[in-house]
Amino acid sequence: MNGEKIKSILQSKPTGQQCSAQGWVRTFRANRFIALNDGSTIENLQCVVDFEQLDESVLKQITTGAALHLQGELVESQGSGQKVELQVEEITVLGSSDPESYPIQPKKHSLEFLREKAHLRVRTATFSAVMRVRSALSFAVHQFFQDEGFFYVNTPIVTGSDAEGAGEMFRVSTLDPKNPPLNEEGNTDFKQDFFGKETNLTVSGQLEAEAYALALGDVYTFGPTFRAENSNTTRHLAEFWMIEPEMAFYDLNDNMDLAEKFITSVLRHVLKACEKDLKFLDERFAKEESSKPQLQRSSMGLLEKIEFVVHNDFKRLTYTEAIEILKNSKPNKKKKFQYPVNEWGIDLQSEHERYLVEKHFNCPVILYDYPANIKAFYMRRNEDGKTVRAMDILFPGIGEIVGGSQREERLEVLEERIKEMNIDAEELWWYLDLRRFGSVPHSGFGLGFERLVQFTTGMGNIRDVIPFPRTPQNAAF
Ligand code: 4AD
Ligand code: MG
Q1: Å from CA of 192 to ligand 2 middle
Q2: Measured in angstroms, how far is the CA atom of residue 228 from the centroid of ligand 1?
Q3: Residue 183: exposed, middle, or buried by beta-carbon count in 10 A (0-12, 13-18, 19+)?
Q4: Mean pLDDT for the stretch of residues 391-413
Q5: Going by CA atoms, what residue is nearest to atom 28 of ligand 1?
Q6: Is the CB–ligand 1 distance for residue 404 below 6 Å?
Q7: What is the pTM of this model?
Q8: Do 63 and 29 touch, CB atoms closer than 8 A?
Q9: CATH number given to 6-102
């Protein structure tokens, strides 16, 4: 039953040897040519059938979307476009497919349409290429950290602390929503809930990763995270995957060095491992771009962008320097920004980040030393008293891809900050313990995996780089 993968069939030398393949019909032309794809590669295997020898009932079942097992001779192809073809001698229809109702017809479908068919869209060339690249990127992430001596840790998905403050959280509860038990004050009594307290889905594994870094040295997490923000943008998901390395004895510069090395290393890996998929996605990207108005087009092709990031240093500058550039920029002076930049301390909007990356520097940018007031409580305070050792990496076409910092390792400074920000210190007792017992300077960052997949595949919408996207009002499948 088990035939060879089409990827390896296409690499073998055709000498008329017996060969069997299985997969799904992409197209069937002239009652003669089946383009078969099994997902192992972007390329199809051309299979040639002699319809005169075929049973009418079998012929009728060779339709787009049907699953077939084919057996025959592998020969050099007569036609142009492929080197080998399978001269079919035996056909088994594993699963027929009604051509009238099969949604994935051999024509161009809009990405919006395909999102509604998320269970079948991976049978298209575009989505299968994206998902293979996604898989290769995951592998490269683990390979990079393992090669660097990091340990992979699995931080909890259900969390009892909401101190990170990275965003709105999803509640996890087994209480009856129609009839929850009430406490003396008349509020829901979470003491009677499954965990005996309020629990949520995690927004980040960082705080727990810090505990592990302060024992194992260098660690990383790679898992799902959840944010209940109502952001309907092309860069936000309610459920996304994040990679969070955390390193003992690292300062902010070491952190930035590692982040840059990490990103270029995984990109280098996929350039090699996914050559054919990326070539296909590069052509797709070029077509998409050419249909946009001139001013909105990317100045580089997809492969060109990836190569550029791999071969050029990221530009590093402080938040304060960035504000100066933005203040004096043309769009700011001409009041073209929706959010004008006129004072130090404002949170940067994506229009500002994009200006810096896409117009001013034209390369990835690392911004660091942000105002304390717009960043999380755990970031290390600088001597100036107003800024913290934060860093964000901004990418062309994506905006923020990494957020990280050196962590505040001084107990008193951290406690003060927690008070200033009105955070419940009791909940953070264990986190503060880490500063009581053998605290050391340490740093880490979080990279949004889907944003990395977006950058690598050139897909404009983050919903198209994760198998079954979760966004506001959408958890189908
Ligand atoms: O900047 P964020 O919120 O940082 C943290 O969560 C830190 N605890 C990370 C750390 O230092 N260990 O998120 C990190 C990255 C962002 O830069 C972005 O790439 C991605 O996660 N991200 C999202 N991706 C998709 N959908 C969302 N809603 C995202 N929110 C953040
Ligand atoms: Mg951030």
Answers
A1: 35
A2: 13
A3: exposed
A4: 97
A5: 236
A6: yes
A7: 0.97
A8: no
A9: 2.40.50.140
Query: Whose Cα sits closest to atom 21 in ligand 1?
Result: 448
Q: Check residue 203 and give its pLDDT.
A: 95
Q: Which amino acid type is present at position 134?
A: R
Q: What is the strand order of the sheet 399-406 is part of?
A: 151-152, 218-226, 239-248, 442-448, 399-406, 387-395, 365-371, 315-318
Å from CA of 177 to ligand 2 middle? 33
The predicted-structure confidence for 338-368, as pLDDT tens digits, reads as follows: 999 999 999 999 899 999 999 999 999 999 9
To the nearest whole percent, how much of the chain has pLDDT over 70?
99
Over residues 127-143, mean pLDDT: 98
Instruction: Provide the H-helix boundaries in 223-274.
Output: 252-273
pLDDT per position as a tens digit, 242-294: 999 999 999 999 999 999 999 999 999 999 999 999 999 999 999 999 999 98
Is any atom of ligand 1 closer than 6 Å to the C-beta of 236? yes
Of all ligands present, the nearest one to the C-alpha of 451 is 1
Classify 123-168+203-464 by CATH class.
alpha beta
Measured in Å, residue 402 CA sits from the centre of ligand 1 at 7
Write the CB contacts of 428 (distance below 8 Å, at least 6 apart in sequence).
Answer: 161, 163, 418
The stretch 57-62 carries a mean pLDDT of 94
* Same fold yes or no, 6-102 and 123-168+203-464: no
Structure tokens that stand for 436 in this block? 């009581």
Q: From the alpha carbon of 400, which atom of ligand 1 is closest?
A: 17
Q: In this structure, what token pair is assigned to residue 466?
A: 């994760």
Mean per-residue pLDDT over the chain, rounded: 95
Domain borders along the chain are 6-102, 123-168+203-464
